[in-house]
Amino acid sequence: MPSYRPGTRLVTSTVNASTTTAASLALSDWNRTIVIGTVTDGSGNLLTNAGVEVKRRASASGASTYLGVVFTDTNGEYGVSLPILSGTQVYAFEVTTPVS
After folding, report:
1. Which of 13, 38, 39, 91 is 20 to 30 A off residue 48, Cα-Cα?
2. What pTM value is reported for the model?
3. 67-96 pLDDT, tens per residue?
């Protein structure tokens, strides 16, 4: 089975000082992209059951539209399929962790 993790970007969360490393792959035939990521805390520990809120923004600093939330598995990994954006639109991923 082929790998769908061609590259990664480090995205720093604004919540709980967590980070998430996200890889994406464009599926042009379906006008979709798959984002697969791993969420860790500030010390590099995997975060299980962390919520990853997905938002679409008009630009990197523009107004956002809430699209939904996905959760990490026991390996701190998550995945989501999203429409490919055009122009200045971008996706933002914000991590929240469960209350201990």
Report:
1. 91
2. 0.68
3. 999 999 999 999 998 888 888 888 889 888
